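hey all, quick one before standup. I had two proteins in the batch that finished overnight and I want to keep them in one place so we stop losing track of which output belongs to which input. First protein below, input sequence then structure tokens straight from the run.
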Amino acid sequence: MFKGSAVALVTPFNDNGVDFESLENLIKFHIDNQTDAIVVCGTTGEATTMTEEEYFSTIKFVVEKVNKKIPVIAGSGSNNTMRSVYLSKECEKLGVDGLLVVNPYYNKCNKKGLKLHFETIASSVNIPIILYNVPSRTNVNIDPQTVFELSKIKNIVGIKEASGDLAQVAHIKSLVDEDFYIYSGNDDSITPLLSVGGHGVISVVANVLPKETHDLVMSYLNGDIETSKKLQLELKPLIDSLFIEVNPIPVKTALNLMGLNAGKLRLPLTEMEEKNIEILKKELLDRGIKLC
């Protein structure tokens, strides 16, 4: 799919729905600052709060505006297998380069169900699929052996690993073929994941610092481990502040503070607490980011 930094893109909302003018500005910002891929309508994009019309029109818009400059990957996961099949097929028709499919949440299926869930979705489309393992949100973990079995399916090409368990990532790497891509789903441990054979990150902090996030990954992949380590440690305080409340509340707040209109949050998400805004402002300023 890609090597480097994929931004888990926010969706700017206004009172009328998706703010496409602001969305276009954000796309340009990322292309100009070396973001390696765009993930649209994922968790950070608040896809679960969007109407079906908003969801598909946003994906269509991003595909058209990116115009093949970098890969566009759509979040098409659901805890309803056939719903995910439907979303995946429609996203393929819209011209996305790949899909990010989260492990099914709430239903808490067993390993057999988990495997069949992803097999069913993969068999419905011809484009690449990246698994998304985020047990802190789904309460389900895709264990390394299941990842290995799923990696044998031709169009399941990688995993976004957000378990926070580096030993699990290393175990996955020891099982899968070299052409199976592993991406960090945790911005605070990108370099450690790269050190056990990872290929990049699907990132929240890249919304704010796309060039630096790209550089962090590519410096490691190009053999400059010290620069990657330095950037990882330098970014750690800002990354922590971007998760001081549930994502994407802080990152949308940060972008609005920067004058990059990320629009409103949608319920059940709401504005940051004032004390946390002050912490976020301090970390943005400490990174030399100008605020409006």
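OK second protein, same deal, sequence then tokens:
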Amino acid sequence: MIDRRLLLASGAALAGCATTPKAREQGPGLGPWKHGRAEDHGLSTPALETAAAKLAAPGERQGLVVIRDGVLVFERYWANAYAKATPEWRNVSFSSGKSFGATMVGRAYTEGLLKLDDLASKYHPSKVSGLKPGVTLRHMLTMSSGGTLNVKPSSVRPKRLDDPTPPGPGAEYEWQTVGERGSPPGYGISIEPGTTFYYDGAVADHLANVITAASGMTSYRYMMTHVVAPMGCEGLDYQKEGVDKQGNIRLGGSILMSCRDLARLGQLYLNKGRWAGRQLIDERYINEAISPSPLNPAYGFLWWLNGSGRTPNAPRSMYLAAGARGQFCFVLPEVNMVISTMGFGEAQLTQEQAFAALNPALPRSEV
């Protein structure tokens, strides 16, 4: 199956990167990350230590992982009221999990289960989803669907280490009468698909139902067996509250994962979809996922982009998975790096603040 728009986008992306060496597979494959010295990969351990200390100064970071040339060259972990200082500790993804969701759609595309310009209603009836009949999967991936009033609650905050409260029930869809606060007038009611960009996890959640119909298995099972396991993730799973009674995930967030596993996601995209000796995600899909969407040049397929320079002093080619409270995976193609950091606290760490802390430790001649 060949998607004409993906072919065109892929051709444009390749034309714009004619001087860039073709991406080759790097990273851990199905095994653990390989470790190396920062200095052997053009970085400075003291500079990374300084960056880590600045990033963790507010006291709410759990971890920082730096990958270069597919090798883990630096990592630091910190304990706080919500987390332990171990590489295995699983943090709540919040919206950085959307980029894993985009990857799940990409895997289904690669397997020929769906096309990006398919109507969502082909898999998930409009009367159930609340989406307008003309909404396509592409609209859903680029936050340009016009919205829905059938929504799931947000990700559950991590509990303090001394909180024994067990997980609650899975998040179920609930019909609202109006759009969430801050949404444009008519959101989920009268806005036509493909006319308005509005960042909203509710629509992304409905992609999980699409995957269920397209694959013939629950979206939770599809994600875990067709994406998470083939990537060799060591501890990634979903919050109990993030899986509903039908076995569908809250695609807009609710993943529990380590900084190391979040870095795998960035490396997969840096590899143009190759992983463990195979093309896990079609390269054409990867190229479009990290290219500007029609209504927002700073957004691709559930990935944020820096082509418009939103993050000062960062390469325009940078893209990132981003979630509330500072869950970030920065992908820096020009310097062959992936940087992931996670944690939780009351302060809202922004991507600009996080990158400003890290920037002095990055290769100067290329950033």
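Flagging for whoever picks this up: The chain has one domain: 25-361. Residues 25-361 form a domain with the Beta-lactamase fold (CATH 3.40.710.10).
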